[in-house]
Amino acid sequence: MDIETRLARLEATEAISALKAQYCLACDADYDFASVAPMLAEGFWFDGGAGFGRHHGREGFKAFWDTVRGDIRFAAHLVLNPDITVTGADTARAKWRLLMPCTVTTGGAPEARWLLCEYDETYVRAGGAWLFETITMQVNFYAPHLKGWA
To answer: Is residue 92 within 8 Å of residue 84, measured between CB atoms?
Structure first.
């Protein structure tokens, strides 16, 4: 592999890491959809499984975030173990782990919870910027803090 190709892959990996960080910051800023909308490719898909549903396009994802904003009072999206693979000049795939302490509303009262999941994502580069094409969440547990997940 020549030096230009290696450099392009490193730059793509860094840009995708920065994209993911900005996405997490938008989540933690009360699910600020105005910040995340420009990060989503045309035809974007989110698949959160049975617990978080499947949402297509920016408007579908916005409707989901509007619901989440009402349910989650606090969240800290801590993403770990990035495994980013550049699959083409303008395509990539990554897996991440999410450990998220959060406060949700349960029965009208606040409840501390933990979410652990795996993100499996695809990206495309359009107009020189890396964008989310798909986000799939495989939830390992979403458990009350005091009761635990075992």
So the answer is: yes
